[in-house]
Amino acid sequence: MEKVAFIINPFSAKKNYLPFLNELTNKVDNPLYYVSESIQGTDDFIERYFDSVDIFVAIGGDGTISTVARNLINTDKILAIFPAGSGNGFSSETQFGKNLTELLEKIKVKKSRKIDTFTVNERLSINVSGTGFDGKVVKEFEKTNRGFKNYIKVSLKTFFSYKPIKLKFLTEGYQQYNGKYLMVNIANTRQFGNNAYIAPNASKSDGLVDMVLVKKFPLTYSPLFAFRMFTKKLKDDEYITYLPVSEIEFKVNTKNWHLDGEFNKIKSPIHIKVQPSSLNILI
């Protein structure tokens, strides 16, 4: 398994990465791997082996994948994934499962294709990023032990107390959408993770992202919203608006964002820009 490096986030998968590592060392002779100590450590590892490695495998959740990916943008290096996060939205959307044997077979074939990414004030995002309600949820979720059940608990608790954010577009032609929203999502792929499809028509290879504007809805609408989200049937209605864009600027009265599920503080004005065909993904 030459010219392949495995980057493991030891804090993913409830900090239980040893089964993966044991399986890897049983199936691959002397694999090149790094158990990441920090984002900077990951960056340094990739820089050290960049010239000698063709495929970098991220073992973790969407945040881990994004950290690895930002080092590979607009290069011929290939990103591969072994999902080990709480949501695994991006790995699901790029057809990576938790079968190491299948992954190693893909690596041997070494086929890849280019997909889009985007930036939020020059910070990379590969999957779904957002502000408002879900930015607050991620902030509170990171205080828990993660897991889908805790995500639901935090979401419900936050929903009832959360005040909508104010959105003002700076890009000409979008002012009609100025207003108050429960959340604003920027979707390069279809789902947050855990099969929650916030943008069922989003494509990671069309040069666009779906900007999803969600107004605060009454409790009676919640079951329909949840049903549609988990069955890929969310669509424009009185509470949801979809805006396919390649670049856009706006202001929001909050700094709380999540980028691929990781909490970030980002100050307005916000500049969203798609980077077409910028990331090479193993297929």
Question: How would you describe this structure to a colleague?
Answer:
The chain has helices at residues 18-27, 39-49, 62-69, 89-93, 100-109, 133-141, 148-161, 222-230, and strands at 4-8, 32-35, 55-60, 78-83, 112-120, 123-125, 128-132, 165-169, 179-181, 183-187, 209-214, 240-245, 247-252, 256-259, 262-265, 270-282. It is of the alpha+beta class and 283 residues long. The two termini are 17 Å apart.
Question: What is the helical fraction, as a range of percent?
Answer: 25-40%
Radius of gyration: 19 Å
Kindly state the number of beta strands.
Answer: 16
Classify the secondary structure makeup into a structural class.
alpha+beta
* Amino-to-carboxy terminus distance: 17 Å
Strand content: 25-35%
The rough form would be described as: globular
The overall pLDDT average reads 92
Order of helices and strands: EHEHEHEHHEEEHHEEEEHEEEEE
Largest sheet features: 10 strands, mixed
Number of helices: 8
